[in-house]
Amino acid sequence: MDEPSKNLILPDDTPVDLDAEFRNSNIQEVLAKLDRELIGLSPVKTRIRETAALLLVDRVRKKLNLSAVSPTLHMSFTGNPGTGKTTVALRMAEILHRLGYVREGHLISVTRDDLVGQYIGHTAPKTKEVIKKAMGGVLFIDEAYYLYKPENERDYGAESIEILLQIMENNRDDLVVILAGYKDRMDKFFHSNPGMRSRIAHHIDFPDYSAEELLIIAKLMLAAQNYRFSPEAEKAFAEYIPLRMKLEHFANARSIRNALDRARMRQANRLFAGAKKNLTKIDLMTIEAEEIFASRVFKDGQVDLDGDELTEEQ
């Protein structure tokens, strides 16, 4: 569809081929990539597709000189750790870029420490530098509620929030901000900062994965690194998952990745110290049940001490 003159009034029966617009935008490629990368999360994927459809139709309307206020694209992603929020933000940045809503489509991921200074005069330069890097793309602020600490009179998070609010309002056509964190804490954050809530148009909640979905994720993670479970190891890991889900600091796919890293380490130690010297490629690829059952989850109901708690508590 050719770009019409802004002053040209097109007839109401001007044909519109949304399918062609969809194909030409190449966003189907991004949506397919999201389906491959993330197991489950049907409500999240539905919301992303709905948002993409809104933006696509909005772009077509502009080509037909149908004026409307540009949609507000700032978002809030809520859910527990390891539920795919950063991955979805990456794909959202791609969609926004392919539809022409941001210039570059890159993602800048930050936390409070990247935005807030410890001394007077440090916060504004830090926040503005991050915003400068994010311009033309998406700024992803994880655990955004830590920006607001009203109990500390000497905290400078409020200064960063004020700068962000100005940018989110005045530079909506060049920067999309996504705030992320636990749902209850984000709700409290928005309640305490109505200016921020009013600028967020899309609130997407990320559900926890089921045990069955986590097993599929585990197998995909292993395959991506040229590993695999033996049949017995797969059964053992299917037992491990619900036990791990009941313990503290569980972080969905992140906990699964950490458990697999430890299983790979145990496999390497077994192969290196074992009596079998004539190893094969299959031996190097296969995780056995003993690597899974060695976890402290089976022994005393605790998480292994080689990094899981420290990684997921942060």
Question: What topology emerges from the helices and strands here?
Answer:
Layout: H1 18-25, H2 27-37, H3 42-63, E1 75-79, H4 85-98, E2 107-110, H5 112-115, H6 123-134, E3 138-142, H7 157-170, E4 176-181, H8 183-192, H9 194-199, E5 202-206, H10 211-224, E6 228-229, H11 231-245, H12 253-273, H13 281-285, E7 286-287, H14 289-293, H15 296-300, H16 308-313
Parallel strand pairs: 1-4, 1-5, 2-3, 3-4, 6-7
Helix pairs in contact: 2-3, 2-4, 6-7, 10-11, 10-12
Protein name: Protein CbbX
Family: Belongs to the CbxX/CfxQ family.
Keywords: ATP-binding, Nucleotide-binding
Model description:
It is a single chain. This protein has 314 residues and is an alpha/beta fold. Helices cover 55% and strands 9% of the residues. The protein is built from 16 helices and 7 strands. It has a 5-stranded parallel beta sheet, sandwiched between helices. Strands 6-7 form a two-stranded parallel sheet. α2 (27-37) packs antiparallel against α3. The longest helix is centred in the first third of the chain and has 22 residues, at 42-63. It starts with 17 loop residues before the first helix and ends with a helix. Mean pLDDT is 88; it is low at 309-314.
Percent range for β-strand residues: 5-15%
Spans with pLDDT under 50 lasting ≥5 residues? 309-314
**What's the overall geometry?**
globular
Largest sheet: 5 strands, parallel
Strand line-up in the sheet with most strands:
2-3-4-1-5
Mean pLDDT: 88
N-end to C-end Cα span:
49 Å
Order of helices and strands: HHHEHEHHEHEHHEHEHHHEHHH
Q: How much helical structure, as a percent, in the residues?
A: 40-55%
Question: Rounded to an integer, what's the Rg over CA atoms?
Answer: 24 Å
Secondary structural class: alpha/beta
Count of DSSP E strands? Answer: 7
Our count of helices gives 16
Domain AAA+ ATPase: 71-210
Protein name: Protein CbbX
Keywords: ATP-binding, Nucleotide-binding
Family: Belongs to the CbxX/CfxQ family.
